[in-house]
Write a structure and sequence with these properties.
The complex is a heterotrimer of chains A (451), B (401) and C (343). Chain A has 13 helices and 17 strands. Chain A has 451 residues and is an alpha/beta fold. In chain A, the strands form four sheets. In chain A, strands 7-6-8-11-12-16-17 form a seven-stranded mixed beta sheet, with helices on both faces. Chain B has a domain of 275 residues: ABC transporter involved in vitamin B12 uptake, BtuC, CATH 1.10.3470. In chain B, a hairpin with a 2-residue loop joins strand 3 and strand 4. The two termini of chain B are 19 Å apart. Chain C has 343 residues and is mostly helical. In chain C, strand 1 and strand 2 form a beta hairpin. In chain C, helix 12 packs antiparallel against helix 14. The chains are: A alpha/beta (451), B mainly alpha (401), C mainly alpha (343). Chain C: Keywords: Amino-acid transport, Cell membrane, Membrane, Transmembrane, Transmembrane helix, Transport. Chain C: It holds the Pfam family BPD_transp_2. Chain C: One of its GO terms (biological process) is amino acid transport. Chain C: It comes from Ahrensia marina.
Chain lengths: 451, 401, 343
C-alpha cells in the first residue's frame, strides 16, 4: 500500500497551510498505521487483525463456511478460550493463549466468490481498510495464486487455504506465501504404490481432466507416477470447467480398452463426473479380464457427501481426515465437534493449522514483520498438528508431511463417515526436489515487508 | 462551459466535485467507531467505483441510447485487461501504454463482434453478444492458457522482459504499476480527529479518466450522433424507411462502448496488476447491465450511481459477518438481540447476493428509471411543498434527462 | 462408428433435458410474450422438490445405538425414518428408494402453484414492459430463488439416487449381438429420454386436441382478437405459465439422479436453454424441441476426443458457434415462422 505517511508535525503544517483550521489533535488511525516498525499494517494498540478470505457464495460456499468455523475456533484458542485444541498437542510451546505476542487476535472476513478478481478485491479491502496483517483462506488454486501475488506486493503474509495445484508452490510461488495443504505431485506419489498393490501394475488408464491449471498439474502428476509403476495411459481428455453432464466424456471410456478411469476433477465437477461414471455401470464391468476401477486423485469429504453412495470403494488421496487417531487430530476433532456438532473437513483442518503456524511463527520471531515470519517458518519442523512430523521447506514454502490414501467407505455409519484411511504414505515417499520439472519456472523472490 | 449547456455543466461539476472529494464522502464514520464497517473510502474500492463507473457509462452509450442490450460486454473489459497486462509484461510497468493498448484492442475486438452481432436486433442481438462473450471466456479459461494464464490468470513477474523499462534503466518503480515513476498504490493519509482519509494516486488517475469519459458521454448524448442513436431506439424501422442506414451509427456506438469497456479493463490492471478469465464470464456482463438499470439506463449519471451501489454491496455488505452483527445488537436484551441477528443474518455477509437480487427486483418493478428516477421522485415530493427550496435541489434534480 | 452411435444416443439424452426446458421457455414466450430468465430457477426448484420429498420421507427420530460410537466417542445416534415405523422397514425403505419417481407427483402441483403465483404476482405486471425489463426482473427473481434455496439446502450438491432397480446400464451392443461393453447406456438416462418424449408429446397433444389448447394457440397467434371474442385469455395464459413451470419442474425432478442437484444448476442451464430457443426459432414449440436434440447431439459429438484433437477447445464453444451461425444465416431459427421476430 503506501510508502508515504504524514508525520504529525507535517500534518499540522499542512493543515495550517491550507488555513482550514483543522489543526485538531490528530491520531494516526491504527488501521493505516505504518509505524516505525517499517512494515505494512504493523499492529498498534492491543489487538492484531487477521483476514479470513473464504468463498461464501458460489459452489464452494459450504467448504468456505467450514473454513470459517475453523478460523473462529483457532482465534478462540489463540485468545485463550475453549479447550485449546491442537495448541496443546503442537510441538512448539510458544503460544500461551494470550493472543499473539500479547495482542488479542481479531479477525475480518470476506467473500472470494471463488473468483480471483473478487478474492483480490476482498483481500485488498482487508489490507487497506481493516489493517489485516495476514491473509489466509481460499478454496481453489486460481484464487490462491492470485491472492498470494497480491500479498507479496502489499507486504503481508499469505497462508494458503485449500489449494492443491503444484503451481502454488511451484511456478507461482512467492516469498510471502505459505502452503500447508498437499499438492498434485504428492497425491500422485502417494496413490501410485497403493494403486499398484490393489490393482496390479498392468493397467490401462483413461484420464478425464478439468480443463484448467489445477487439472493439468494433477493429470501430469498422476500420469507420471502411474506410468512409473508400469501403467499405460490410453487417453487423456480435457473437460470444460462449466460442464455439468459428463456422459459424453464417459461413454467412450469402455470402448478405449482402458480398465481404470482417473477423474482429475474437483468440487462439483468431481461429484458429477463420478456420479455419471457410476451410473454408466463402469464399476461392474470387466475389461481385459480385470474389474474396471475408478480413481479420484483429490478427495474431499464435503464433496464425497455430494456424490453419495457413488464413492464407495473408490481410491483417492486427502490431506487429513477426522478419523485419524493421533493426539493432534483427536484434540482438534474434539474441540471442533463439541463446538459445532460435526467433525471438521480437511479444509477446516488445514486453515486451523495455518492460523496456528502463523501465530506461532510470530511468537517465535518476536515480531509481526513478514520477513521475520518468513524466517521463522522457513525450514521449520513441527509435530502434533495431525499430520505427524512436518517440515515447512525453505526453498518453496511447501509443507512436507505424510499423505493419506483413502477409500470411499462401504458401510458408512453416519453422514460424516464416508472415507476410510487405507494408508498413511510416509513423507519421504512424497518428497521431491525443489527444482522438480513439475514445479519448475518459479522464483520465490525476496520477502516483502511492504512500507 | 466546455460546449455544454448549463444543466449539463452543473452535472459535470457535480461529478467532478464528488470524485475529488470521494475520500471524504466515503469515509464519513470515525475509524474506531462501530459504523466504520460502512466506510468505503479505501483505495481499492474507490478505484473500483470509478473504473466500473467508466464501464457502466460506456455500456450506457450503447444500451441507454440505442436500446441494444448487449449481454457480452465483459468480454471487451477482459480483452482490454489481457492486452494491458501483456504491455506491462513486455514493455513497461508504466500504465500509459497499457491503457492505450487496452482501449485499442478492445475497440478492434468490439468492431468485429459488433459488425457481426448488429446484423440482428432485439433478443437475437443479446444472444449473439452473449455467445461471443461466453466463447471468449471458455477459451481464455482453457485452450488459450498459454496466453491468458487460464485459471490462475496473469500477473507481472520478475522474469518478464519489460523492454522499455530495461532500456531506460531501473525496474520501473520496482516492478509496480506506475505513472512515470508515480506508484499507483501510493497513498497519502490524513487523520483528522478520529477520522482518517486516504488519497490514493491510482484512484485519482482513474478518476481523471472517468471525468473525461463522463464529459465525452455528455457530448455524445447531446450531439447529432446521439440524437441519431436515440432515433434508432424509438423506431429503427421508420428510420430505415427514410433511407437512412442506421447500422454505421449503431456500430459506432457499439465500438465506442467497447472502448470504454477496454479502458475500464486496462485501468483494472493498472490499479491491480492481475487478470483472471472470470471477469469475462456472462454474469460479469450481467453485472454491468444491472449497474446501468439500477442507476437509470439512458441517464447520464445513473450508470455511475449503479456501479457504485453494486460495488459497495459486493465489498462492504459481504464483509459483515455474524460476530459483527452480534456486536451491533449486544446492547439489546438477549432474546431481542438474537431475534434481530436471526432476522438480518440471511441478508448480509454471505447472503449479500439475496439482498442484491431483492433490491434489483424492487428497482425494476417500482422504479423503471432506476435510482435517478427515485431521486427525481423524492425531489418532486419536496418541490410540491410550499417552501421553495429549488436552489438546493438543482444538482440532484437535474441528472440528465 | 460405434463411438458415433454412442454419442448420438448421448446427444438424444442430453437433448431431452434441453428440449424440456426450452419447451417451457417457448410456451411462456409464445403465449405471454415474456422472456423468462427465471426458467432455469424453475428447473432447479423442481429438482429441489425431489430433495425436499426425500427429506420428508426420511424424517426420522433418533435411536441411540449403544454398540457403536460417533466421532466424538459418544454412543451413536441412529436415525430411524418414521416411514419405517409406519410401513415396516421393508416397505419403508422401498418408499425411500423410490423417492425420485414419487417426487413427480409431489412436484407437479407444487410447481403449478409456484408458476401461477409467479405469473399473477410478478410477470403479469410486465406484459406491457419492454423485453429488457422482463429479462431483468426475472433475472433478479432467479437470483433470489436460488439464494433462498442455498440458504436452506447449502451450496453443496445433494445426492438423490434413482431407485435401485434402475442403477447400472443397458448393453445395446450385447443385445444386438455385437461385442459387449461397446455401446452401453445407463437405464436411468434411457428412462429420462422416454420420459421427456412422453411429456413433450403430452404438451403437444394438449395444445392440439383440447379446446383449451385450441384457444391458447389462437391466443398465441392473435391475442387481441381472441380477447374480443369474449374469451378470458388471461386466465388461460396463467394456466399455461403454470404448465410451463411444471414441465421445467418435472424435468428437474427426473434430472436429480443424473447429476446431484445444487442451488445454481438452473443458471448452468439458463444460457444454454436460451440458445436452444433462439436456434429453434422464438415462439416455435417444435423448433425448441428439435433444436434441443440437435444441439445435444452436436455437443456430444464435439466432445469426442478425436474431434477435440482436431480442433482444440471445440467442445467448449460448439453450442455458441452454432447459435451464431444460425442467427446470421437463418434468423428465424430452424422452425420459426416466417416474419416472426425475424430482424
Amino acid at each position: 500500500m503506501s510508502n508515504f505517511q504524514f508525520t504529525r508535525r507535517g500534518l499540522i503544517k499542512a493543515a495550517a497551510a491550507t488555513g482550514a483550521g483543522l489543526a485538531m489533535p490528530t491520531i494516526i488511525s491504527p488501521a493505516f498505521a505504518q509505524n516505525q516498525a517499517g512494515y505494512t499494517n504493523a499492529p498498534a494498540g492491543g489487538t492484531v487483525t487477521l483476514g479470513f478470505n473464504v468463498p461464501q457464495s458460489g459452489p464452494y460456499a459450504d467448504e468456505g463456511a467450514d473454513e470459517l468455523r475453523a478460523y473462529e475456533l483457532a482465534v478462540e484458542h489463540l485468545n485463550g478460550g475453549g479447550d485449546g485444541g491442537m495448541m496443546n498437542t503442537f510441538s512448539s510451546k510458544a503460544l500461551k493463549g494470550n493472543g499473539i505476542l500479547g495482542k488479542k487476535v481479531e479477525f475480518v472476513t470476506g467473500d472470494t466468490q471463488t473468483k480471483s478478481d473478487a478474492a483480490r478485491a476482498s483481500a485488498k479491502s482487508m489490507i487497506e481498510k481493516d489493517g489485516a496483517i495476514m491473509i489466509t483462506g481460499g478454496s481453489s488454486s486460481g484464487v490462491a495464486v492470485a491472492v498470494q501475488a497480491l500479498c507479496q506486493d502489499a507486504g503481508v503474509i499469505f497462508m494458503a487455504g485449500l489449494t492443491h495445484s503444484n503451481d502454488t508452490t511451484g511456478k507461482d510461488k512467492r516469498a510471502n506465501g505459505f502452503r500447508h495443504f498437499f499438492n498434485s505431485y504428492m497425491s500422485g506419489a502417494a496413490l501410485a504404490p497403493v494403486l499398484e498393490k490393489m490393482y496390479g501394475s498392468d493397467r490401462k488408464a483413461y484420464h478425464l481432466t478439468a480443463d484448467y491449471n489445477w487439472g493439468y498439474t494433477t493429470e501430469e502428476a498422476i500420469k507420471s507416477s502411474t506410468e512409473a509403476i508400469g501403467w499405460e495411459t490410453v487417453n487423456t481428455v480435457k473437460t470444460p470447467l462449466t460442464q455439468t453432464d459428463f456422459s459424453s466424456y464417459i461413454a467412450p471410456v469402455l470402448q478405449s480398452g482402458a480398465d481404470v478411469l482417473v477423474l482429475n476433477h474437483y468440487g462439483g465437477n468431481m461429484v458429477n463426473s463420478l456420479t455419471n461414471a457410476v451410473q454408466f455401470g463402469l464399476r461392474e464391468k470387466q475389461v481385459n479380464g480385470k474389474n474396471f476401477e475408478i480413481v479420484v486423485p483429490l478427495y474431499s469429504r464435503l464433496m464425497a457427501k455430494g456424490a453419495g453412495a457413488n464413492v464407495k470403494g473408490i481410491f483417492g488421496s486427502t490431506n487429513w481426515h477426522w478419523s485419524l487417531t493421533d493426539e493432534g487430530s483427536k484434540a482438534f476433532v474434539k474441540s471442533f465437534g463439541e463446538k459445532y456438532g460435526f467433525p471438521p473437513s480437511q479444509a477446516a483442518h488445514t486453515v486451523y493449522c495455518q492460523t496456528l503456524l502463523y501465530a506461532d511463527a510470530a511468537e517465535r520471531a518476536g515480531t509481526f514483520n513478514p520477513c521475520g515470519i518468513v524466517e521463522a517458518l522457513e525450514g521449520y519442523e513441527f509435530d502434533g498438528l495431525g499430520n505427524g512430523k512436518t517440515l515447512y521447506r525453505a526453498e518453496d514454502h511447501q509443507c512436507f508431511k505424510d499423505v493419506l490414501v483413502v477409500k470411499g467407505k462401504e458401510n458408512p455409519t453416519s453422514e460424516f463417515d464416508l472415507l476410510e484411511v487405507v494408508e498413511v504414505t510416509p513423507v519421504d515417499q512424497v518428497t521431491y526436489a525443489p527444482d522438480h520439472p513439475q514445479f519448475a519456472g518459479g522464483n520465490l523472490g525476496q520477502c516483502n515487508p511492504g512500507a | 462551459m466546455l460546449g455544454l449547456r448549463k444543466s449539463d455543466a452543473t452535472l459535470l461539476l457535480f461529478v467532478v466535485a464528488i470524485t475529488i472529494l470521494a475520500p471524504f464522502i466515503l469515509n464519513p464514520f470515525p475509524t474506531n467507531s462501530a459504523m466504520a464497517q460502512f466506510n468505503g473510502g479505501y483505495p481499492d474500492l474507490m478505484q473500483r467505483f470509478v473504473i466500473f463507473g467508466i464501464f457502466a457509462i460506456g455500456f450506457n452509450i450503447l444500451f441507454g441510447l440505442t436500446g441494444y442490450l448487449s449481454f457480452g460486454h465483459a468480454a471487451f473489459l477482459g480483452v482490454g485487461s489481457y492486452a494491458a497486462i501483456w504491455m506491462m509484461k513486455l514493455l513497461t510497468m508504466n500504465v500509459i501504454p497499457a491503457i492505450i493498448i487496452s482501449v485499442i484492442v478492445a475497440g478492434l475486438f468490439s468492431l468485429v463482434v459488433g459488425y457481426i452481432s448488429l446484423r440482428r436486433s432485439g433478443i437475437y442481438f443479446s444472444i449473439l453478444t452473449l455467445a461471443f462473450a461466453q466463447m471468449s471466456y471458455s477459451l481464455a479459461y482453457s485452450v488459450l492458457t498459454p496466453i491468458t494464464g487460464g485459471e490462475t490468470g496473469l500477473q507481472p513477474k520478475n522474469t518478464d522482459p519489460r523492454i522499455l523499462d530495461t532500456l531506460f534503466g531501473g525496474g520501473g518503480a520496482g516492478g509496480r504499476a506506475n505513472f512515470f515513476g508515480l506508484d499507483m498504490r501510493d497513498s497519502y493519509f490524513w487523520s483528522v480527529g478520529d477520522w482518517s482519509f486516504v488519497f490514493n494516486t491510482g484512484y485519482y488517475v482513474a478518476a481523471i479518466l472517468m471525468i473525461a469519459a463522463f464529459y465525452l458521454s455528455i457530448r455524445i448524448f447531446r450531439s447529432p450522433f446521439g440524437l441519431m442513436l436515440r432515433a434508432v431506439k424509438s423506431n429503427q424501422q421508420r428510420m430505415n424507411y427514410t433511407g437512412l442506414n442506421s447500422r454505421p451509427y449503431t456500430l459506432a456506438a457499439f465500438v465506442i462502448s467497447g472502448m470504454y469497456a477496454g479502458l475500464a479493463g486496462g485501468l483494472l490492471v493498472a490499479m491491480d496488476t492481475q487478470v483472471g478469465a472470470e471477469r469475462m464470464f456472462w454474469t460479469a456482463s450481467g453485472e454491468v447491465v444491472l449497474m446501468a438499470i439500477l442507476g437509470g439506463a439512458g441517464t447520464l449519471i445513473g450508470p455511475v450511481l449503479g456501479a457504485g451501489f453494486i460495488k459497495y454491496f459486493e465489498n462492504i455488505v459481504s464483509k459483515i459477518n455474524e460476530s459483527i452483527l452480534q456486536g451491533w445488537f449486544a446492547a439489546l436484551p438477549d432474546g431481542l438481540s438474537d431475534f434481530m441477528v436471526a432476522v438480518i443474518y440471511p441478508f448480509i455477509g454471505k447472503g449479500w447476493h439475496l439482498t442484491l437480487g431483492l433490491l434489483f427486483m424492487l428497482v425494476v418493478i417500482f422504479l423503471p428509471g432506476g435510482l435517478v428516477e427515485g431521486g427525481q421522485r423524492i425531489a418532486a415530493l419536496f418541490r410540491r411543498k410550499p417552501k421553495d427550496n429549488d436552489g438546493g435541489m438543482s444538482a440532484q434534480a437535474t441528472p440528465a434527462e | 462408428m460405434d463411438a458415433i452411435i454412442l454419442q448420438i444416443l448421448n446427444g438424444l439424452d442430453k437433448g431431452s433435458a434441453y428440449a424440456l426446458i426450452a419447451l417451457g421457455l417457448t410456451l411462456i414466450f409464445g403465449t405471454l410474450g415474456v422472456v423468462n430468465f427465471a426458467h432455469g430457477a424453475l428447473f432447479m426448484l423442481g429438482a429441489f422438490c425431489a430433495v425436499t420429498l426425500s427429506r420428508l420421507l426420511t424424517l426420522s427420530h433418533t435411536v441411540i445405538d449403544e454398540t457403536k460410537t460417533d466421532f466424538l466417542g459418544n454412543p451413536l445416534k441412529v436415525d430411524m425414518p418414521y416411514v419405517n415405523d409406519i410401513f415396516g422397514p421393508e416397505i419403508g425403505s422401498t418408499i425411500i428408494d423410490w423417492s425420485v419417481p414419487l417426487s413427480i407427483l409431489f412436484a407437479i402441483p407444487v410447481m403449478i402453484l409456484i408458476g401461477v403465483i409467479m405469473e399473477r404476482g410478478l410477470i403479469k405486471h410486465f406484459y406491457k414492459r419492454p423485453h429488457a425489463d422482463q429479462i431483468l426482473v426475472t433475472f433478479g427473481l432467479a437470483i433470489v430463488l436460488q439464494e433462498i434455496v442455498k440458504y436452506y439446502f447449502g451450496a453443496n450438491p445433494i445426492p438423490t439416487p434413482a431407485p435401485d432397480v434402475f442403477r447400472g446400464s443397458f448393453d445395446f451392443g450385447a443385445a444386438v449381438g455385437m461385442d459387449p461393453n461397446v455401446i452401453i447406456y445407463p437405464y436411468w438416462r434411457l428412462i429420462y429420454f422416454a420420459f421427456a418424449t412422453v411429456i413433450i408429446g403430452a404438451v403437444f397433444a394438449f395444445l392440439r386436441f383440447t379446446t383449451f389448447g385450441m384457444v391458447v394457440r389462437a391466443g398465441m397467434a392473435d391475442r387481441e382478437t381472441v380477447g374480443l371474442l369474449g374469451i378470458n385469455i388471461d386466465k388461460r395464459f396463467t394456466i399455461m405459465f403454470g404448465i410451463a413451470a411444471a414441465v421445467a419442474g418435472v424435468a428437474g425432478v427426473m434430472y436429480t439422479p443424473i447429476n446431484s442437484p445444487n442451488y445454481h444448476m438452473g443458471m448452468d442451464f439458463l444460457v444454454l436453454s436460451f440458445v436452444v430457443v433462439v436456434v429453434g426459432g422464438m415462439g416455435s414449440l417444435p423448433g425448441a424441441v428439435l433444436a434441443g436434440f440437435v444441439l445435444g447431439i452436436l455437443e456430444s459429438l464435439a466432445s469426442m476426443s478425436a474431434v477435440i484433437d482436431l480442433i482444440p477447445g471445440i467442445n467448449q464453444v460448439i453450442i455458441y458457434m452454432v447459435a451464431i451461425l444460425i442467427l446470421l444465416t437463418r434468423p428465424r431459427g430452424l422452425m420459426g415462422r416466417k416474419g416472426v421476430m425475424e430482424e
